[in-house]
Specification:
Number of domains: 2
Helix content: 25-40%
Number of helices: 15
CATH topology of the largest domain: Rossmann fold
Structural class: alpha/beta
Radius of gyration: 21 Å
CATH class of the largest domain: Alpha Beta
Shape: globular
Number of strands: 15
CATH superfamily of the largest domain: Glycogen Phosphorylase B
Distance between the termini: 19 Å
Strand order of the largest sheet: 3-2-1-6-7-8-9
Strand content: 15-25%
């Protein structure tokens, strides 16, 4: 007998969470796809970091969607006889699990892991109307919800008396050692991009409209502090962003898209990290930046705003260029130029171990 965990794909920024659930709750780890739709990563390397052997469901994936009808799911649930099944947020597989529980008369708990930010659920700012409809009509069927911010937890508690807060964060003890091992790559970037002695404002992510990067460039153009903006990633807005940057009298570099070690090495260089999305379920990059030791500027719309304190950064209205520019000035003045001879102390205000312990306790109770 094993408990069961179901997710769309193995997100690298959640591997520590997956490993902890596998070890602490004896879970069979199941996923829709080996290759994520928006995750251009080295899947062999990702799987090598897993303490478990992932099971991948065959099935029918609906066009332009990550929703999948999973073949063999009922058979697996019948065989495993789980006490707990953790499901993705309002997916077809979630309905399959609920229907199996109903028809089989089994008494296992069904817990939904949902990534929605408070802005999305409270301000009718969902990615799709279907997602909002499913939340409103299916929430009563779940035994609990794993949510990414304290505000979302409070929202679910008020309405359904359910909700456990587990942000999308890495195990800081493992991650700090990992960043330390990347310092040689980081030092090479300093040489390759002529960054010696420069303060760096860093962005990492997709180059898409929702990330609001044109406004970041406009705000950066107003900053008087001498600094370089580095935008890591790729996407449909890349060409227009490069053209926009050329009209600004500031140093802005687009090194391209990086994955794995080559991606995380950039965090060691950053004085300040910025995430200015006008819609963002969470934003795991905020955690990645804070663990590396750099300060952060995060949109109030992002779920990862819950990780930001006056000691590690500040929150901004993502649509206000003046406010963003002032935040960049303040955070650059507080940040130094990283010493790449050793890794910095983490600036995370939330402990991975404490959050996992709380999750296990709440689910078991």
């Amino acid at each position: 007998m094993s408990n069961v965990f179901i997710r769309t794909e193995i997100a690298p920024y959640r591997i520590d969470t997956y490993n902890a659930l596998y070890k602490r709750l004896d879970m069979k780890m199941c996923f829709y796809n080996r290759v994520g739709k928006n995750l251009p990563y080295d899947n062999d390397k990702i799987e090598s970091q897993c303490l478990f052997k992932p099971k991948y469901f065959k099935g029918i994936t609906f066009k332009n969607s990550n929703r999948k009808l999973c073949f063999g799911l009922w058979r697996m649930l019948w065989k495993e006889k789980p006490n707990i099944v953790i499901v993705p947020e309002f997916q077809i597989s979630t309905v399959q699990v609920l229907l199996f529980r109903f028809f089989s008369h089994r008494k296992f708990k069904v817990v939904s892991m949902t990534d929605d930010s408070y802005d999305m659920i409270a301000n009718d700012n969902d990615f799709t109307k279907l997602h909002a409809w499913l939340r409103n009509h299916f929430a009563k069927f779940f035994d609990n919800f794993i949510v990414v911010t304290p505000q979302v937890q409070e929202w679910y508690q008020e309405r359904y008396n359910k909700g456990i807060w587990l942000p999308i964060i890495m195990d800081e003890q493992r991650a700090i050692k990992y960043y330390q091992s990347l310092l040689p790559i980081s030092r090479q970037y300093v040489e390759d991009y002529n960054l010696l002695g420069k303060k760096i404002l860093l962005y990492v992510g997709r180059l898409v409209e929702v990330k609001n990067l044109h406004r970041v460039i406009d705000a950066f153009s107003l900053v008087e502090t001498d600094a370089t903006l580095i935008i890591i990633g790729d996407g449909p807005e890349r060409d227009s962003l490069i053209k926009h940057a050329e009209s600004v009298d500031k140093e802005i570099i687009f090194p391209g898209q990086f994955n794995g070690d080559q991606l995380y090495s950039w965090y060691n260089l950053a004085s300040v990290f910025i995430l200015n999305s006008f819609k963002e379920a969470f934003g795991a990059v905020t955690n990645e930046a804070l663990i590396s030791g750099c300060r952060v500027i995060v949109s109030k719309k992002a779920g990862s705003s819950c990780l930001v304190t006056k000691d590690n950064g500040e929150l901004v209205n993502p649509m206000n260029e003046i406010e963003i520019a002032k935040a960049i000035e303040r955070q650059l003045s507080l940040a130094g130029i990283p010493d790449l001879t050793s890794s910095r102390l983490s600036k995370m205000s939330v402990s991975f171990g404490e959050r996992i312990d709380n999750l296990i306790r709440m689910i078991n109770n």
